[in-house]
Design a protein that fits this description.
Helices cover 73% and strands 1% of the residues. It contains 17 helices and 2 strands. Strands 1-2 form a two-stranded antiparallel ribbon. The longest helix is centred in the middle third of the chain and has 35 residues.
């Protein structure tokens, strides 16, 4: 395992310390300009995202958010700050701001190249775009294979590993036991199919988001004197090396950008090509409306929750610098929540809920890849394998899981970005 960790670490340092940062920021900026600053339509996107709970669009949005509102919003931001310094929060936020344009472009393409199965169900995704728009079945199969691999890594192992570590820290329960309990809880939902997944996500996601937001706002009220100093530190550390807080040092520009962008991509998935999978089954939605919904998912995930988590962490460490020495990179958010009565338990519950939602949401994404590659007959086998990976992820080393996650993200980005660039002229902004 140590050799695999070293190899992945070397590969990720190469990919994420230059090539992919340039590629992602470039494509985000390209579509921001080509779509006439699509971010100006954010009020419309937010309005659509707040439509009734029983509507297809809302259920698709919460399914997309279930897959993205995971450990990246808590552990991802925490590790980004610990490894890249406070400036990483800025780059994470900026990735979300510009990434909204890429999220719109991805979903728009996937909506116009959907295919109807013999049973009348609509299927879509970047694999269909590669096959039918770019006439490359092999490229579609490659992306679907990467998507399937990602469902076992990004969506499954990372989340299960974080839950088992959290439960072990709070209760002392062995990771293997946590893994078995997770299998039972996740299996109860996903074995009932995609409709049950979307219905469950429409209930769980709003509830857990409100709980976490309320806790963060309370902490910011407690830390009100340190909110503006936290903003100043985040902005100054984004471009210059800065000795920051206790044991947490402000990283160089490269480290701040590397960890901020990587964690931002991990949590909102703009540029990976996964989020559109939650929207392509909608029969009544236009490409523009579905794409705006997909864009709003990036807003809620990164612009709101990730940024809020980062400010909570920095303001709390400014208030009590010694806290940084008592927590690891993956538990740094616990330092912020330590100001609340039972704060660490509340954070643990939030983390478990976020990870649980992601486990369910990503099982839906992986199922789309399996349907494309092998047909619906293979879904039962896939779901059993997915549940098995939950147990494996629960007992693996978390640092290794994070390195695997960054590498799989990189593999997903390349074919998706190629498709977006080659088909850029077919993507249209909403009509005025």
């Amino acid at each position: 395992m140590s050799l695999l960790y070293q190899i992945l670490s070397i590969l990720n340092r190469f990919l994420w310390n230059g090539p992919l940062l340039i590629l992602l920021f470039g494509i985000h900026c390209l579509f921001t300009i080509r779509l006439h600053f699509i971010q100006r339509h954010l009020p419309d996107a937010i309005r659509i995202s707040c439509e009734g709970q029983k509507k297809q669009g809302f259920r698709s949005l919460t399914t997309a958010l279930a897959a993205t509102l995971g450990t990246g919003n808590i552990v991802g931001v925490s590790s980004a700050v610990a490894l890249g310094g406070p400036g990483a929060v800025f780059w994470c936020w900026l990735t979300g701001l510009f990434g909204m344009a890429t999220a719109y472009a991805e979903c728009y393409l996937c909506m116009i190249y959907r295919k109807e199965n013999s049973d009348g169900a609509l299927r879509g995704g970047i694999m269909y775009v590669l096959e039918y728009a770019l006439k490359s079945k092999n490229a579609g199969r490659l992306f679907a294979f990467l998507l399937l691999t990602a469902s076992f890594g990004i969506g499954c192992s990372t989340q299960a590993g974080t839950v088992s570590e959290t439960v072990s820290a709070i209760t002392g329960i062995a990771p293997a036991v946590t893994g078995i309990l997770l299998i039972l809880c996740v299996g109860y939902v996903i074995l009932h199919g995609s409709a049950a997944i979307k219905k469950f996500c429409s209930i769980l996601v709003p509830a857990m988001a409100v709980l976490y937001l309320a806790a963060c706002i309370i902490i910011l009220v407690i830390n009100y004197r340190y909110i503006f100093p936290a903003f100043r530190l985040i902005l100054s550390s984004a471009f210059t090396p800065t000795a920051a807080i206790g044991g947490i040092a402000g990283g160089s520009f490269l480290f701040s950008a590397r960890y901020g962008i990587a964690r931002g991509l991990f949590t909102n998935e703009a540029g990976i090509g996964t989020a559109p999978l939650a929207f392509t089954e909608q029969k009544e939605s236009s490409p523009e409306k579905a794409a705006l919904l997909s864009m709003s998912a990036v807003f809620w995930d990164t612009i709101v929750l990730c940024a809020l988590t980062g400010i909570v962490i920095i303001s709390s460490l400014l208030r009590e610098p010694s806290l940084a020495e008592a927590y690891t990179a993956t538990t740094l958010t616990s330092a912020a929540f330590s100001f609340l009565p039972f704060g660490e338990i509340l954070l643990g519950i939030s983390l478990i809920c976020f990870a649980y939602a992601t486990l369910i949401g990503w099982s839906y994404f992986g199922a789309q890849a399996v349907t494309y590659l092998f047909g619906t007959g293979a879904l039962s086998t896939y779901r059993i394998c997915y549940l098995g990976m939950i147990f494996i992820g629960s007992v693996l080393s978390l640092p290794l899981i994070w390195e695997m996650t960054d590498f799989i993200n990189a593999c997903m980005v390349l074919p998706n970005i190629c498709a977006l660039f080659l088909l850029r002229d077919r993507i249209k902004p909403p009509k005025p």
